[in-house]
Amino acid sequence: MIDPLYFIVLAPALLMAMWAQGRVRATYASASQEPAVLSGAATARHLLDSAGLSNVAIEPIAGQLTDHYDPRTKVLRLSQGVYGQHNMAAVGIAAHEAGHAIQDARGYFPLRIRNLAVPLAQFGGGAGMFILMAGLVMRSPVLLLVGIGSFVAVAAFQLINLPVEFDASRRAKKHLVEHGIISKAELSHVDRVLDAAAWTYVAGTLYAVLIVVYFLIRLRGGSRS
Length: 225
Description:
Elements: H1 4-31, H2 40-50, E1 57-61, E2 68-70, E3 75-79, H3 80-83, H4 88-106, H5 109-138, H6 141-178, H7 187-224
Parallel strand pairs: 1-3
Antiparallel strand pairs: 2-3
Helix pairs in contact: 1-7, 2-4, 4-6, 4-7, 5-6, 6-7
């Protein structure tokens, strides 16, 4: 049976996530219509080489907005809509991912903490909900506490991730202008794409926090009954 309290507590995060996803799609589509001199892959290569990171490989990856930097293998992967495309959206996203590679090379402390927290967050996100549901069905405070602890780890990861993502975007915009890849006038297109993406991280963080709040309310209510 669906619990109305779940939607009441999670409503702010769900609404923000829908709004953020819509904004990402709109800004991405708009910036994709603005031409750029370099492709996404060429942009990333230029920024990486300028930072002395010629050892970081760039590879295409399937999917849309699946772009990411893998610190374990030192590989920057760009989606089909970014890798070979010559537009402001591709340039901005590629520069953002290059920003993560530069963070890694410079020993950016929040990124180190985030990388250490990834396995715990993956476990919490995958197993946490099953443990929580089992705790509710079995009316087990122990399972509920374990499940809540799992989502606390996810929420902590999301909070750590925010400054990492904001810093990568800051580096991207700074380097794009400094290296003459885009002009200051063109920066507004990149700004809109990266700012919209930032709201998806904020929504994800809010969701993880409110999940913990929801189950703490349920745990408290269950203990009273």
